[in-house]
């Protein structure tokens, strides 16, 4: 026995729900990547701050290691850390908005399905 056709409004809401879910997963993956980058940056900063000012500091430039000034690398890493923190906050806000949107869509879908089910039952049948 085949199931009855879903009304267009429910199909549209289900499609929006799926799209929002995909967007949420993408944002969560981006956020995880930013968190990893941030953790690496913080670790590099900690190690660099332990180093004496007179010690040689190197950084990757493609396939090469290049000698650089400690203060230049500290400045660069601090900027990278600040940018990663900002991106993490933006992604967290997007994640929260998508989660709220999913809750709203789920409620609307549930209400529409319940409404459709109650319309399918003749009055007096329970």
Explain what you see.
The chain is mainly α. It has one domain: Helix Hairpins, CATH 1.10.287.370. Helices cover 75% and strands 8% of the residues. A two-stranded antiparallel sheet has the order 1-2. Helix 1 packs antiparallel against helix 2. It starts with 7 loop residues before the first helix and ends in a 6-residue tail after the last helix.
Shape: rod-shaped
Q: Give the C-alpha Rg.
A: 26 Å
Taken in chain order, the helices and strands follow as HEEH
How widely separated are the two ends? 22 Å
Keyword list:
126 residues, mainly alpha, two-stranded antiparallel sheet, 2 helices
Describe the SSE topology.
Layout: H1 8-50, E1 57-61, E2 64-68, H2 70-120
Structure summarized in a few sentences:
The protein has helices at 8-50, 70-120; strands spanning 57-61, 64-68.
């Amino acid at each position: 026995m085949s199931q009855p056709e879903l009304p267009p409004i429910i199909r549209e809401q289900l499609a929006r729900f799926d799209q929002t879910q995909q967007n949420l997963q993408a944002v969560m993956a981006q956020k995880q990547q930013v968190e990893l980058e941030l953790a690496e940056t913080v670790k590099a900063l900690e190690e660099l701050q332990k180093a004496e000012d007179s010690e040689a500091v190197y950084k990757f430039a493609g396939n090469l290691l290049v000698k650089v000034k400690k203060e230049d690398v500290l400045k660069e890493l601090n900027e990278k850390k600040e940018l990663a923190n900002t991106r993490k906050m933006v992604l967290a806000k997007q994640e929260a908005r998508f989660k709220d949107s999913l809750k709203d869509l789920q409620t609307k879908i549930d209400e529409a399905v319940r409404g459709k089910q109650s319309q399918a039952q003749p009055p007096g049948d329970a």
